[in-house]
Amino acid sequence: MTTLKNDRFLRALLKQPVDKTPVWMMRQAGRYLPEYRETRKKAGDFLTLCKTPELATEVTMQPLDRFELDAAILFSDILTIPDAMGLGLYFAEGEGPKFKNPVLTAADVNKLAVPDIEQELGYVTDAVSMIRKTLDGRVPLIGFSGSPWTLATYMVEGSSTKEFAKVKGMLYDRPDLMHKLLDVVADTVIQYLNAQIEAGAQAVMIFDTWGGVLTTRDYKNFSLNYMQKIIDGLKREQDGQKIPVIMFSKGGCQWLESQAETGVDALGLDWTIDIGMARHRIGDKVALQGNMDPSVLYATPERIREEVAFILQSYGKGSGHVFNLGHGIHQYVDPDNAKAFIDAVHELSIPYHL
Q: I need a surface site. Which of 12, 181, 200, 235 has the fewest CB within 10 A?
């Protein structure tokens, strides 16, 4: 087993002392990097890029070769799960993801079953193994999945949505169907994340991108409950090492206390809450990840440093903070600004750990 040369990301998630605040970026391997765009062109299309372990490894490593990041995240897509369940994922030019076979009726829900992870999603676990080997202990590797509710929104709508009309229609009219759908997706996510852990992921993250569109009652019933089921079913140790779990509900900072009760190691925060206030609310129960507005990266390097300094000051002294953006990095950000951000976190955070 390769020894980690830089483990501050894992240490911070477990609230252990670190020399400086670790930093990584959601969507750090992506379209803002010219080298990513070249590799995607070579792949021909996005799905081929995801489904070819060599290419997924190549793009996972690209930001690490450019920036001093403290973690790598598997290059994949949250919609690999519904694709493996037979929904027929494809990407329409300029329109985002779509499904040939959306889940619209009781018959569609009843047909859903947990796929054979090795058979249908082996390309993901192969990529995890390949990335872990290529990293050679440089930094830890994060595996991930979408939350059941977030995956359900795409599965029922058949594409991206701003209205959530079909999925909320099912939730309110046929809650029994929605619960059945979410249950099979949660069972799949458990197996999928455990397979990633067995393949070499050293931490895992659950992306609940659309949790924030729900009422408090519905968030607890239709999103948090199923993430709780996943957390209860995950392997929390592999090869003698603890596997930290991060939960991120975008737009869900009003429910931090409930999220912290689930047994996760860390909560992701979007940029709509002051991180000091979040820390005050949950105490030392879990670590916090976040939470700079991604749009700050359109500003000057000087302004980016100011924002980093403000967030570090707001969190305060001690471990338990993984610096990140409040959501994924935007595709039109200048990579030099991303570098200014990462360098500022490392430089300015040192006094908070003395």
A: 235
14, exposed or middle or buried, with CB in 10 Å at 0-12, 13-18, 19+? Answer: middle
Q: In what order do the strands lie in the sheet with 321-325?
A: 72-73, 141-146, 203-208, 245-249, 266-268, 287-292, 321-325
Task: Write the CATH number of the domain with boundaries 30-274.
Answer: 3.20.20.210
Catalytic machinery residues:
27, 31, 40, 77, 154
Which SS3 state, helix, strand or coil, does residue 245 take? strand
Q: Enumerate residues 6+ apart whose C-beta is below 8 A from 272.
A: 251, 253, 326
Start-end of H helices in the chain: 8-13, 34-43, 46-51, 53-66, 80-82, 106-111, 117-135, 148-157, 165-173, 175-199, 216-219, 225-233, 256-260, 275-282, 301-315, 335-349
Integer CA distances (angstroms), 302 to 32, 97, 340, 344, in order: 20, 37, 9, 10
Does the global pTM surpass 0.85? yes
105 φ, ψ (degrees, to nearest 5): -125, 170
Domain ranges of the chain: 30-274
CA distance 199 to 204: 12
Half-sphere exposure of 278 (CA within 13 A, CB side): 29
Of 103, 126, 22, the C-alpha closest to 345 is: 22
Residue with tokens 């192969």: 126
Taking only the tens place, the pLDDT of each residue in 283-337 is 999 999 999 999 999 999 999 999 999 999 999 999 999 999 999 999 999 999 9
Which amino acid is it at 1?
A: M
Please state the φ and ψ torsions of residue 261, each to the nearest 5 degrees. Answer: -80, -5
